[in-house]
Write the structure tokens for this entry.
Amino acid sequence: MTVVEVLPGGGWYTEILAPFLRDKGQLIEATPPASSPNPFFRKMALKYKAKLDAKPNVYGRVKTEPFEPPAYMELGPPDSADMVVTFLNMHDFMYANVHGDVTGMVAERFFRSAYLALKPGGILGVVAHRAPATMPVTQSFKLGRLPQTYVIRKAEQAGFKLAGTSKVSANPKDPGTMPVWYLPPMLSQGQNDRAHYEAIGPGDDMTLRFVKPGS
């Protein structure tokens, strides 16, 4: 399979995907380029490149392609990928531009780009921090979360069909009403209520599988 991972960040999932696809597949990482005008993206790109360069025996066949929302969000030629995956990035796509306006426009562009890049019958996998179903998106994304119904609706509007959900990353102890970075592993509040957040555990995440219609 040709698999495109979108915004790999520090490469946690790359550590899983790259060895799995190395001999019988192709992993393409859609990640900001080191030439990005955005200082955060440049720092991310350099750190990620260093990770890939450090272990050529593991990451030597990984390809990288520029992906820099909202300026550039293509994910490859049409009908070129078997699978597109993104992990814990959906709330970041709620920023419509550098000023932080919330419209969902970037999320819609992501789903359209994934739909175009996938072959008919191709798979889109999404893991995202979950917010309560009744929480407005304009509030939830500030907590690093989105309602699951919203994510599904945006994917379906782009043409995808929901093919499955999983509770593999669900956490019923997480009420979904606090910033997800308060919880493990980030524990951004330091020692403030640390025992409380550790007792809750990692954030409640949705795991969704979509399919692009076709043979």
